[in-house]
Write a structure and sequence with these properties.
Elements (H helix, E strand, L loop, with lengths): L4 H10 L7 E4 L2 H11 L4 E5 L12 E4 L2 H12 L2 E2 L9 E2 L3 E5 L3 E12 L4 E7 L6 H7 L4 E6 L7 H10 L4 H20 L2 E12 L4 E3 L3 E4 L8 H4 L9 H8 L3 E4 L4 E5 L2 H13 L6 E4 L6 H12 L6 E8 L4 H16 L4 E7 L2 H10 L4 E3 L3 H13 L6
The structure holds guanosine-5'-diphosphate (GDP) and manganese (II) ion.
The site of guanosine-5'-diphosphate has 18 residues, from strand 2, strand 3, strand 7 and strand 10.
Length: 392
């Protein structure tokens, strides 16, 4: 799950990490009141969307008068933001963060993530922070300092010095960096985060480190033990199809291809996508309907995959281990009848009560293409999709 910058900064502040003072606003009037209560004569208006790259997309603006606060907020609340981080989606701006504007001496980069190769939390930092960090990572990787934290002992002060001196910071800033990293590490572990990014972490006009931006990502599997964080979820920022799927207990990810896949079990779903690719096709989605699925879920799953724009064929690959193939067949038939599927549907069923399931499909009178095994199914689905909706 992703969080907004203002939510991440609240968490940062509660761990003692310095952040600029700010307030979230949902209307231009609220924004003006926020700016007044913050005081000063310069503010930054920041669109709250679940993506970085806002600065370049017009979602971060410095303003000098209350009229500008109102006008800029009004403008942003009517924007949809799409950046290289939004994965093709345009995100609505339902709130803005009004923050005191800070003088920036320099922009650094600091992040922490789950490092699966080294099985630990790894920090990455660079003195070349700011909006072009991806460019730095691609062309000057030597400017990025990496520090791996041993899970058994946790973050150690010497690692802060490694990072700080590695980035070329002064002794004073290295001390501040160590404190910040130590707090970030506690936050990361306490809240089951999977990613945390501060870009930029700045040296301000008073020569202190401040987190000017904050981005965190939390492991969905841990949401149940963090009800306060789960309540921060903003579904308006999520792929609508993925959000609907998660409400129905379906594991769904939108992809670019044209062959929709409906599979039970994550491993089988991955294998299905591989075999589709091996046969020259491109999956339109990843969909795991779950091990103990039923007719109702199969129907919901059909509705979801059909809402995809580029679907030219559907490949159903079900292994009846816990589930019964006859119930799956009933679900498919009900879905095709109710939803009105207008693309070819290739079905491969195997396992418990498979004969009954196949019989039901054969007797249904629907134009369902049945397949004998996974490879056969993938071939047929690719051919059907290539024929652009003409069933074989
Ligand atoms: P992002 O583009 O979505 O990552 O948004 P950021 O919060 O990182 O802001 C983008 C850029 O705007 C930063 O790198 C800063 O250069 C600038 N910026 C943001 N807040 C302030 C501020 O308070 N003062 C100044 N001078 N610049 C700011
Ligand atoms: Mn940023």
């Amino acid at each position: 799950m992703n969080f907004h910058e203002y939510q991440a900064k609240e968490l940062f502040a509660s761990y003692g990490i310095p952040v600029p003072e700010g307030k979230v606003a949902r209307t231009p009037e609220e924004a003006v009141i926020s700016a007044q209560s913050l005081g000063g004569n310069m503010w930054v208006v920041k669109a709250q969307v679940h993506a970085g790259g806002r600065g370049k997309a017009g979602g971060v603006k410095l303003v000098r008068t209350l009229d500008e606060v109102r006008a800029e907020t009004n403008h942003m609340l009517n924007m949809k933001i799409s950046t290289y981080q939004t994965g093709g989606l345009s995100l609505p701006v339902d709130s803005v963060l009004i923050a005191e504007a800070i003088d920036i001496e320099s922009e650094l980069y600091l992040s922490a993530l789950i490092d699966r190769v080294n099985r630990c939390v790894t920090f990455m930092g660079s003195a070349a922070g700011g909006v072009d960090i991806e460019q730095v990572a691609a062309t000057e990787p030597e400017k990025i300092v990496t520090v791996k934290v041993d899970n058994t002992v946790g973050f150690q002060a010497y690692q802060g010095r490694q990072m700080g001196f590695g980035m070329g910071l002064s002794a004073k800033h290295v001390k501040q960096m160590t404190k910040i990293m130590s707090a970030l590490y506690r936050l990361f572990i306490d809240k089951d985060l999977s990613l945390l990014e501060v870009n930029p972490l700045i040296i301000d006009g008073d020569d202190n480190l401040v987190a000017l931006d904050a981005k965190i990502n939390m492991d969905d599997n841990a949401l149940f033990r963090h009800p306060a964080l789960a309540a921060m979820r903003d579904e308006a920022q999520e792929d609508p199809t993925e959000a609907t799927a998660s409400r129905h207990g379906l594991n769904y990810i939108t992809l670019d291809g044209n062959i929709a896949c409906m599979v039970n079990g994550a491993g089988l779903a991955m294998a299905t996508m591989d075999v589709v690719k091996l046969n020259g096709g491109e999956p339109a989605n990843f969909l795991d309907v779950g091990g103990g699925t039923n007719a109702e879920r199969v129907k919901e799953a059909f509705k979801i995959i059909l809402s995809g724009e580029h679907v030219e064929a559907i490949l159903v690959n079900i292994f009846g281990g816990i589930v019964r193939c006859d119930l799956i067949a009933e679900g498919i038939i009900a879905a095709v009848e109710e939803v009105g599927v207008n693309v070819p549907v290739v079905v491969r069923l195997e396992g418990t009560l498979v004969d009954e399931g196949r019989q039901l499909l054969a007797d249904s009178g629907l134009a369902i293409i049945s397949a004998s095994d996974l490879n056969d199914a993938a071939k047929k689905a690719v051919a059907a999709a290539n024929n652009n909706g003409v069933a074989q």
